[in-house]
Amino acid sequence: MTELHTQETYTVREAARDFPMMVVLSFVYVCNAQCPNCPYNNSEIRATYKDALIMPPDLFRQIADECGPHGAMLRISGGGEPMLHPQAVELMVYAKERGARVGLITNGSRFTEESLTALITADLDAIEFSVDAGDAATYRLVRPGLDWDRLNASVRLAAALRERLHAGTRLIVSVINQQGVDVAAAEAHWSRLVDKVQIRKYLTWGYNEDLSADPSPYLPPEQRIPCPWLFERLNIDSRGDVTLCGEDIAFAEKFANIRERSIKEIWNGPEFQHLRDLHLARRGEEIAICSRCPDWKYRSWQYNYWKVLRDAEMKRQSRQS
To answer: In 3-state terms, what secondary structure has residue 218?
Structure first.
C-alpha cells in the first residue's frame, strides 16, 4: 500500500525548482459555519488575527504578481470561508489575469449567479466544495450553520454555468472520512454533479480530537519519509508571514514575511533548504513542529492535489465528449 504514496528518491519537485508549485493563502479568518471538527473552531487562532481577519488586497496582488509568471497555483483557503472576503471575486479574477492558477476551497454557501459567473468566466482552475456529507441529516451535524439545499443549488449552478460558458474550471467536492459520515453515500450523491469527489483523510491539525474513520497511514510513521509539503508549497497568512508547513495553521513557526523578501527568495533561502535537508536525512523530527505533527503519516507523494486535478480534468473532458 505504501508504494502508492512513496517514491524511490526525494527532492524538490521538478516544477518547484525555482518557485513553489503552490502558494497556500490564509485568505480570511472569518466563517459562517460552526463545523465541530474545524481546528479554527477548536482553538483561539482566529482571535489572534483580529488585526488581519482578511488578507489586504495589496498583499494579495503582490502575491499574484509574483506567482503569475511562474504559473503557480494560488490555493485560496485559510481560517474561514474565502467568499466572505468582500473583494474575493475581484482578487481571484486579478490573479488569473496575472497568469497564476487559482484553486478555491469553499463551503459553497456564499455564491450568487453573478459571482460564480465571474469566476468561471475567468476560468478559475478549480472550485472545491467542502461538503463532508451526502445527505441533509449528516450535513446538519458536520456543517452546522449552513444549508444543504443552498449547497446543492450552488454546485448545480456552477456545473450549468461552466457548460454554458464552455469553461475549463474543474468542479471538485471534498468529503472528510470522519466518524458519522457515510463516505460511499456522499460519493454517490456528488459524483453525478462534479468532476471529482475527493475522500480526504481526517486531520487533527493538532487541535481536533481524533475522529478518523480510516486511520491507516499513507507513510509509515517509523520510517519518517520526507513530508512532500516542504518540497512543493509555501504557506502565507493574511499578514504576509510565511511558515514552514501548512500544518502550522497558527503560524507559530513563521520565519519570513513577503513584504520584506520575495516568495522566490524565501523559497530558495537557507531556512527552507535547512528544513528540507533535515527531512531528506530522515531527521525531520528534529524540527519542532514536525516532531509533534499528528498528520505526517497522511501525506502522500503520489495521491495529492495534483492527482485530484488530473482526475477532475479527465472527467471534465469526458463529460464534454
So the answer is: coil
Give the whole-angstrom CA distance, residue 122 versus residue 128.
16
pTM value is 0.96
Find out whether 213 and 229 touch, Cβ atoms under 8 Å.
no
Helix (H, G, I), strand (E, B) or coil at 48: helix
Strand order in the sheet with 73-78: 196-200, 170-176, 126-130, 101-106, 73-78, 22-28, 233-236, 241-243, 256-257
The span from the first CA to the last CA of the chain, in angstroms, equals 34
d(CA 180, CA 213) in angstroms, rounded, equals: 8
- Inter-residue contact 95 to 55 (CB < 8 Å): no
Alpha helices in the chain (DSSP H): 57-67, 88-97, 113-121, 136-142, 148-165, 183-190, 263-267, 270-280, 288-291, 305-320
Of the candidates 270, 272, 218, 264, the one whose C-alpha atom is nearest the C-alpha of residue 245 is: 272
Provide the β-strand partners of residue 106. 129
The C-alpha cell at 98 is 496575472
From the centroid of its chain, how far is CA 16? Answer: 17
Ordered mean pLDDT values, 10 residues apiece, the chain (321 residues): 84 96 98 95 96 98 98 95 98 98 98 98 98 98 97 98 96 97 97 97 94 93 92 98 94 96 97 95 93 92 95 91 71
- The most distant pair of C-alpha atoms in the chain lies apart, rounded to whole Å, by 53
**Cα–Cα distance measured from residue 115 to residue 217, given in angstroms and rounded to the nearest whole number:** 39
Whole-number Cα distances in Å, 75 to 130, 205, 237, 273: 14, 18, 12, 23
Residue 305: what residue type?
Y
